[in-house]
Amino acid sequence: MPTLMIQGTTSDAGKSTVVAALCRALHRRGVSVAPFKPQNMALNSAVTVDGGEIGRSTALQALAAGVEPHSDMNPVLLKPESDRGAQVILRGQVHGHMDALDYHAYKREARHSVLAAWQALSKRYDVIIAEGAGSPAEINLRENDIANMGFAEMVDCPVLLVGDIDRGGVFAQLVGTLELLSGSERARVQGFIINRFRGDSALLEPGLEWLAAHTGKPVLGTLPYLHGLLLDAEDSIGCAGREEGVPALRVVVPALPRISNHNDFDPLRLHPRVAFTFVGPDRPIPSADLIILPGSKSTRADLAWLRSQGWESAIQRHLRYGGRVLGICGGFQMLGRAIHDPEGLEGPTGSSVGLGLLEMETRLVAGKQLRNVSGRLLPESVPIAGYEIHNGVTTGPALERPLCELAGRPDGAVSDDGRVLGTYLHGLFDRPEACAALLARCGLVGKAGAVDYGRHRQEELDRLADALEAYLDMSAIQRLLRC
């Protein structure tokens, strides 16, 4: 099966965007292509067509390829719950919880899931563009590797190595990575891609010539730095939002230690009338019109972090002065009177007192809810769509006043005075009508500026593919793929 793997010299070298761009470029040429990431560690995830869960960036690559995201595209997903442990998801479904050492040993078994998923995709698509994780030069993780060269050797596929010139030292990145590979792995690397270049390419040419002569491997392209690019990230929060103009609405979001699916806020970061800010640890909490409590992979622990950072008193003060609060998924659970975790699904067993802003309680139970849903926002009745990923079952009088209706059932809650809102729905700002209606409740009058995030994604993917077509040797890519 023709497979090409994109590996990087570091995390965030641009592997995900290169794979997305390749998928879109090949799709536009009429090639049946699928993305594949053997192993991913991320808290941003998506619900697949087969009812599974994969990394958000892989789902974006499927969109670029013009296909539905499937759990086979990311057979191993690790969702960190602490500095040493993670939830392990195999082919879309929760397998269990492991600490780092246990998982390192388990990879011998996980490779079977990886190979089975790759073989399943091979039967449905003409070519596969695979993405590595981190760097193949992490020699401490080489044993039982399934994320980088271990996978490439398993399926016997060529590799292209991406280096990020914007962070500096790109020649050292590329040469040093090759030096740390085994002989067979080094032979597997068929060329380099320089990513995020700014400036006059003539100044780079001597370095590229030296690199090719020193390593015997060609530089297949130098991709430009694409200013303003905003697409679903794996984990990196990145910039705070737009700075130009005079914003009409101030929105702040605490950057929780285990924040999940923060791409929920990309439409707000793009909105020209919204001043959007992520507030990190030990930072002053600014005044705002809307505070949003985001999703969390460790809801009780992140709730304790919120309290330690002074957010509880800041939220109470914010509400007294007329502000609004919105909770999404884990943030919605925090708004209630209590969160119970009797089985220790997200950490130690026990219960935590919630913020007490909605008359409800949540019990974390085994069996994750995974579904793509659509419906309408209440009472405006504008269309809304997104996805649910959660373990909690929430009950209480607050649910008698839902925020929306999804697939014919009520979801979320709104306080009696309308100032506190909550929902399990991720992606609630993606549709411009729903975004405008929600922001109107917070005082932003008029629909002007609301972003159609679905269209934005497609336009950004085309921009990525256009840059790839202009600066990468696509003939060489297609020779490697035999397509």
Keywords:
6-stranded mixed sheet, 483 residues, alpha/beta, 6-stranded parallel sheet
Number of strands: 26
| Main structural class | alpha/beta
Q: Give the integer mean of the pLDDT values.
A: 93
Multimerization state: single chain
- Largest β-sheet summary: 6 strands, parallel
Number of helices: 14
Low-confidence stretches: 239-244
Shape: globular
Q: What's the gyration radius in Å?
A: 23 Å
Strand content: 25-35%
Q: What would your notes on this structure say?
A:
There is one protein chain. With 483 residues, the chain is of the alpha/beta class. Helix content is 31%, strand content 29%. It contains 14 helices and 26 strands. It has a 6-stranded parallel sheet with strand order 2-9-1-10-11-12, sandwiched between helices. The chain has a 6-stranded mixed sheet with strand order 15-13-16-18-26-25. Strands 19, 20, 21, 22, 23 and 24 form a 6-stranded mixed sheet that branches. The protein is globular. 49% of the residues are buried.
Would you kindly provide a brief summary of this structure?
The protein contains 14 helices and 26 strands. With 483 residues, it is an alpha/beta fold.
Topology overview:
Elements: E1 3-8, H1 15-28, E2 33-36, E3 39-41, E4 45-47, E5 53-55, H2 56-65, E6 76-80, E7 85-90, E8 93-99, H3 100-122, E9 127-131, H4 149-155, E10 159-164, H5 170-179, H6 183-188, E11 189-197, H7 205-215, E12 219-224, E13 249-254, E14 259-260, H8 266-270, E15 274-279, E16 290-293, E17 295-296, H9 299-308, H10 311-320, E18 324-328, H11 330-334, E19 338-341, E20 350-353, E21 361-377, E22 383-395, E23 404-406, E24 409-411, E25 413-414, E26 420-423, H12 432-441, H13 453-471, H14 474-481
Helix pairs in contact: 1-2, 1-13
